[in-house]
Amino acid sequence: RFVAFWQNIVHVNIHREIQQLDQARACMDALLEYGEDSADAAFGALIRLVRSTLFSAQGEWDAALAEVALAEPVMARDRSHWSTMGPPVGMLRALYLLQSGNQTEALRWALDQEQLLLPSRAFAHEEARIVLARGLALQNRHSQALEVLDQIEEDAAAQQRTLTQVRALTSRALVQSHQQDWPRACASLQRALELSGRAGYRRVFLDE
Q1: Cβ contact 27:8 at 8 Å
Q2: Based on C-alpha coordinates, what's the Rg of the chain?
Q3: Strand positions, DSSP E, 57-158
Q4: Distance between CA 165 and CA 191 in Å, rounded?
Q5: How many of the other CB atoms lie within 10 Å of CB of 78?
């Protein structure tokens, strides 16, 4: 049962990234059935976080943020493995806020997390550090933002983690566009497109 549950989470994420949303929703329906059969609150909270990613893919930001809000207190109390299997709740909220245009609220998260995330190169912090870089750019701290993204892109390339590499490059293009450094922004985006084309990743560009 656990293996089937985890496989469905992976499949939701894969189908979302390659813009096969009908298949992602089918896998999500299977996850919701697991949730109905479970009395474990953290199990249900993890399913909510996964579901929020599908709402975000459809531009349903209020629904995505509502799922995050419901999951957050449960995950904060949880001490089981479920809370380590999903994305950090605060980071997910900040990402949705950025993508929906609410920069002020996203910036508050970045300021709160900066001391923890800025010096880290831990794999577990990579997604959050990409969002942090976006927050640094909002403060006109472009050099620091680019340094963070370059580190992530370098680590991901060395370990052949293409999706993380594409996310870092896409965020680098956004930071460079903040600087109005259009040649470098275009070069970063071109590299991201080249890498994503091989794997079929499309969602990362549609999200931004």
Answers
A1: yes
A2: 17
A3: none
A4: 10
A5: 18
Q: What is the DSSP letter of 86?
A: S
**The whole model's pTM is what?**
0.91
For 145-198, write each residue's pLDDT tens digit: 999 999 999 999 999 999 999 999 999 999 999 999 999 999 999 999 999 988
Q: Are the beta carbons of 176 and 184 closer than 8 angstroms?
A: yes
Q: Buried b vs exposed e over 98-136: b needs ≥16 C-beta within 10 Å?
A: bbbeeeeebbebbeebbeebbeeeeeebbbbbbbbbbbb
Residue from 3, 5, 45 nearest 28 by CA = 5
Cβ atoms within 10 Å of 158's Cβ, excluding its own: 9
Quote the CA–CA distance of 99 and 46 in Å, as a whole number.
21
